[in-house]
Automatic annotation (TrEMBL):
Domain of life of the native organism: Eukaryota
GO CC annotation terms, alphabetical: catalytic step 2 spliceosome; precatalytic spliceosome; Prp19 complex
Listed name of the protein: Pleiotropic regulator 1
Record-linked PROSITE patterns: WD_REPEATS_1, WD_REPEATS_2, WD_REPEATS_REGION
Stretch list, region Disordered: 1-20, 39-63
Keywords in alphabetical order: Repeat, WD repeat
GO biological process: mRNA splicing, via spliceosome
Organism in which the protein naturally occurs: Haemaphysalis longicornis
InterPro entries per record: Prp46/PLRG1-like, WD40/YVTN_repeat-like_dom_sf, WD40_PAC1, WD40_repeat_CS, WD40_repeat_dom_sf, WD40_rpt
Subunit note: Identified in the spliceosome C complex. Component of the PRP19-CDC5L splicing complex composed of a core complex comprising a homotetramer of PRPF19, CDC5L, PLRG1 and BCAS2, and at least three less stably associated proteins CTNNBL1, CWC15 and HSPA8. Interacts (via its WD40 repeat domain) directly with CDC5L (via its C-terminal); the interaction is required for mRNA splicing but not for spliceosome assembly. Component of the minor spliceosome, which splices U12-type introns. Within this complex, interacts with CRIPT. Also interacts directly in the complex with BCAS2 and PRPF19.
Amino acid sequence: MFLSDQANPPPQDETSEKVKLATKTRDEYGLVMHLVKTNPQPYRHSGEGGGHRAAGTYHDDASKSKEMKMPELTYTGMDIMPLPVYDDDAPRLALMIMQSSNLNHRLCHRTAANGADATETGDHTKAAVAPSLEALQGNVISGHTGWVRCLAVEPGNQWFCTGSNDRIIKIWDLASGQLKLSLTGHISGVRGLAVSPRQPYLFSCGEDKQVKCWDLEYNKARSSRVIRHYHGHLSGVYALSLHPTIDILVSGGRDSTGTGQCWDMRTKASIHSLSGHTNTVASVQTQSAEPQVLTGSHDCTIRLWDLVAGRSRVTLTHHKKSVRALVVHPRLYTFASGGPDNIKQWKCPDGKFIQNLSGHNAIVNCLGMNDDGVLVSGGDNGTLFFWDWRTGYNFQRLQAPVQPGSIDSEAGIFACGFDQSGSRLITAEADKTVKIFREDDTAVRTSLACPCSHFGKTPNGTEFFPSIPFCLVVSQL
């Protein structure tokens, strides 16, 4: 009856296996099966390209690279095959499928503006996207058994951590993508994470009403790594932020009054209860300058808080729907908010409105920002939009593919963030995976996605010059 009771494994029916494989192939690749070569030849890295590469990138020719090897994953390979180019002026999504010997299928959607990559003969009616194969190599990390809801990158840029609905916090090596440690202790989904830049502490919060402090240098049992509990929330805690200069932790959640809490990180004492929101606090951000605490809520408002007095100094009511994400610019005195309607930019300290960033046809769940002025937004339909912070120009769009075994409704992106170098983007997704995207150092202006009719123009007609010193194209792993 059981496999262990048999001397040999039960035989598999060859016909059934073929039918199952054919069904999966048709479901996953039915729309592009006619583009695949009969006998594809594996891509071989030429070693020529040069240029800087972010740590943790991988090469097909291991003898020419001393970087860390890709962890062993059960993936198969297939050549890259672009879709036919259309002879019209409308922007098109160029869908490419590439599977190398290291990685599973990867889909990269890029919008090719008309005239973006015209031939030398002067024919500007054809647009094509020709990304480097090297730029499309990377990693899709699996291990969680539930939706991955949050992530945080360690200040030393050696590892990052993720929290999931499976109640587990996992710590991963940033270069190799290998699992280093799993932390158990939450009894419900983990919704927020923060890593201290001054102490070896990791902070977490979840739907179990708990806020925990983990000592990462503690050598005893994994469950006893929790050294502090912060009690005070009466319902699920959905957001967490650690103050960058002082030992204060701010959390927010689904309390009936929409209350946020400011904690003394060392004594576990509640310093302030930030009352004012009338619904769930979905996002929290802190900064060293005033206002030191920002909160976004499902009551469609953003509040800027006086940390000393513990009361709201400004309430922003521009959003018509819930505010699900906040991000603070690391160098400028500005911040952005995102929700189902659009993304808005604001100026501190009084929350002066700057501009709207529109284009997402989905709920914006998360925002990320790097030092080069690149804003990334992730939607619940798996789309990633890249914006120039200064001009509000959307210069690239990506569609994260749903992994095998998942359905289209599991394409949502719940959290995203750049590493400390700003050249790698990490996303936490509903298909239970973590994806790492890296910068394409071979990209040129013609390979950027352009939603308007001319690359040098923004939708409002002004000239577009990226505030970054190079063309940033983030290619999916």
